Amino acid sequence: MSNWYQQVCVVVLCTSGLVSGVHANELSTSQATTSPIDVREQQRELFLEAEKALKQRHLDEYARLKEILEDYPLLPYLEADYIRLLATAEDDNRVGNFLNQHHLSPLGWQVRSAWLDKLMDGHHYEQFLRYYEYPGSTRHQCFMVYAQLATGTGDTKPVLRLVNDIWLTGDSLPKDCDPILEAWTNAGMRTTDMVWQRIVLAAEGGKHTLIPYLQKMLPMPMQYLAEHYHRVRRNPVNLNELKFLTGNYPTQETQIVAYGLGRLIWRDPDLALNLIDNLPDHINFSAEQYLKLRQTFAVALSLKDHDQASRWLARIDATEHTDATLHWQLAEWLREGAWTQIMGLVPRLPDSQRESEQWQYWFARSLEAQGFEPVSKQIFERVAQQRSYYGFLAAAKLQQPLTLSRDALQLPAEHLNRVRQLPGVQRAYELRALDRNLDARREWNALIEHQPPNDQRALAVIASEWGWHDQAIYTLGILGEYDAIAQRFPTAYMEEHQEFASAVNIDVNWALAVSRRESAFRDDARSHAGAYGLMQLLPSTANLVERRDVSVHELFNPSYNIRLGTRYLADLQRRLGNNWILATAAYNAGIYRVYDWLPAQPMEVDRWIELIPYVETRNYVKNVLAYQQIYRTLRENELQPELFGELVPMQISGAQLKR
């Protein structure tokens, strides 16, 4: 190793705190002549050059750079790339050593998968079996069986039974599985029941185009069942074709009807209601099937505000409620002001539901409405001890201070230093520095999965120190460290939030709460719905606010994203009668849905929030309100429930709004 690199290594390792090595106080002034930040930047540049050299097959240059980077944290990524690109079966020891060293890191499964692919291509059966780890990809599972058949002697049936689990999927199997499927079939192990199970999987959430292929594997008299299942999967209205309900196979026909009704109630409620009351006598639902149908019908009809919703909710016993059916039962009674029914239901609920903050709060509200104020006050006082939406509401009802423990998670410096030196921590830091956030998160998640609880706590503190807020929040959450309020609710990008919230005259705590709820301050966040950035803006929304086409790249800029997000919040608030609660709901669900949800007659805000039809939006509003209160308390050091105090007397009505 060159003298230059020895000096670079010592400076970087000791002063950055990122890599294990000698302590900083052991360095002489003469050694530390180069800025550690500059040195680490040079190493990153050399790492990128080494990657490029390997990709272009300039192996001498790659080897030279790799030697210089001997102690750089991301050196294993270079070795992983080499194995994926160039390793052959003759490199068994090299690959084995790498996998042993990195079996707990994301590099382990990535390299193992690529290595297994290479061994498959070369038909290296014994090597493959030595490296295979369950479950692997479906291709690997199939080749594992094939390799055992190819290398084994004696009875093959125990090996072929492994195909059962591979077969039971609702998706197509890769061609690599064809040889073992053929052997399995020839051994008589593909039974009619196995074919039917796979048809069910394909119909109920899998790849429905697989059903005609599987249909041919059924005995001829049963093939009409697969045809009917396929038709119902494509359109549940086809359940109305009663000619398929012949009674020849009542169990399978009942299975199709139960599945179809569960979908049809959402598509055509009246047709579903008519069908379920006029089914042939041989369609006899099991207790489990009928309970699931009652629960599904109750939720679907309630969400659609159907006049039969009450009837189906009434068919569910207190012990049979799901969270969804229980919510809609509550919503129905809150809409009607049926406080007596709420009082009667709560004592009969299972413990987990009865003792929840939500049901304790509404039990207290119903007691209060019925004039039992001393008892309701006792329950409110118990709920008010919680740091949550319902806890803050209860405190506001009692006009008492909030409960907001704010103990920062603190650990000894030597503990934090030891964890900082873990190879995975060092790699995550460098990957973030190179904007390789996906790989950084993979490294971090592997650390969280495999480190003991005390080290997991240290990881949360370190992520918070780095400003990696989404990972700190996630880690604290899975550890149950809910009292670490300052770390769970950081004032990230505070300058930008303050500047842009002030510019449009909205509460900065509201803006912070929305960012915290939307992305946990992850600036590169993207949702399945196509929203991007810190405040999770859809491109169409950004275009509307900015009055021009906004690129996704721009939405990943935190400052720009916050500027657009706060402007959008302010616009929604203005259009919704300056009510920030309605604007919060509209930010999540869209303003026109909120218009539709507004009651004709004034309604208390806590009741209205509970009536929001979408569970995502309902929980979103509750979370943002709680987060807003927490930020107000943290920033202003005020424990009085001012924010929630505004909610208690608030009435929601659509009468005064102009669309």
Automatic annotation (TrEMBL):
<feature type="signal peptide">
    <location>
        <begin position="1"/>
        <end position="24"/>
    </location>
</feature>
<dbReference type="InterPro" id="IPR008258">
    <property type="entry name" value="Transglycosylase_SLT_dom_1"/>
</dbReference>
<dbReference type="InterPro" id="IPR008939">
    <property type="entry name" value="Lytic_TGlycosylase_superhlx_U"/>
</dbReference>
<dbReference type="GO" id="GO:0042597">
    <property type="term" value="C:periplasmic space"/>
</dbReference>
<dbReference type="Pfam" id="PF01464">
    <property type="entry name" value="SLT"/>
</dbReference>
<feature type="domain" description="Lytic transglycosylase superhelical linker">
    <location>
        <begin position="419"/>
        <end position="478"/>
    </location>
</feature>
<dbReference type="Pfam" id="PF14718">
    <property type="entry name" value="SLT_L"/>
</dbReference>
<protein>
    <submittedName>
        <fullName>Murein transglycosylase</fullName>
    </submittedName>
</protein>
<dbReference type="InterPro" id="IPR037061">
    <property type="entry name" value="Lytic_TGlycoase_superhlx_L_sf"/>
</dbReference>
<feature type="domain" description="Transglycosylase SLT">
    <location>
        <begin position="501"/>
        <end position="598"/>
    </location>
</feature>
<comment type="similarity">
    <text>Belongs to the transglycosylase Slt family.</text>
</comment>
<dbReference type="GO" id="GO:0004553">
    <property type="term" value="F:hydrolase activity, hydrolyzing O-glycosyl compounds"/>
</dbReference>
<dbReference type="InterPro" id="IPR023346">
    <property type="entry name" value="Lysozyme-like_dom_sf"/>
</dbReference>
<dbReference type="InterPro" id="IPR012289">
    <property type="entry name" value="Lytic_TGlycosylase_superhlx_L"/>
</dbReference>
<keyword id="KW-0732">Signal</keyword>
